[in-house]
Amino acid sequence: MSNIPAELQYSKEHEWIKSEGSNSAKVGITDFAQAALGDIVYIQLPKVGQEVKAGSVCGEVESTKSVSEIFSPLTGKVIAINSDLEKSPELINQDPYGAGWIAQIEFSAAPGDLLSAEEYTQITG
């Protein structure tokens, strides 16, 4: 069974969101997603300053099994990226909710279609 921390919010595309104040949040891919992908060998991160839209592609992750798109769970501007992933993409496998975070996004409006841990558990089985 996947690790699904109760304090986070989730998207249907398997990204997690952790509030970092009133208008920004760190995002990453869930434990469920990284387990499905297998060993991650490369990540294409969004750019700092890039405008992203909820539901749109903002990056890409490549594993030994496949290449998958990363969808932004928020609309806003990327204000930080986890540059450690450029040299060590396997951090996503090792610690998806900690050292494996992908980007921090400043958003102008609170997202409306995010899932609680309980709701996310229902879609991941």
Outline:
Strand 2 and strand 3 form a beta hairpin. This protein is 18% helix and 34% strand.
Describe the structure.
- This protein has helices spanning 31-37, 84-87, 91-94, 117-124, and strands spanning 9-10, 15-19, 24-29, 40-44, 51-52, 57-63, 67-71, 76-81, 103-107.
- The protein is an alpha+beta fold.
- It has a 6-stranded antiparallel β-sheet with strand order 1-2-3-9-8-5. It has a 3-stranded antiparallel β-sheet with strand order 4-6-7.
- The longest helix is centred in the C-terminal third of the chain and has 8 residues, at 117-124.
- It is built from 4 helices and 9 strands.
- The protein has a single domain (9-102), classed as Beta Barrel (OB fold (Dihydrolipoamide Acetyltransferase, E2P)), CATH 2.40.50.
Keywords summarizing the entry:
six-stranded antiparallel sheet; 9 strands; alpha+beta; OB fold (Dihydrolipoamide Acetyltransferase, E2P)
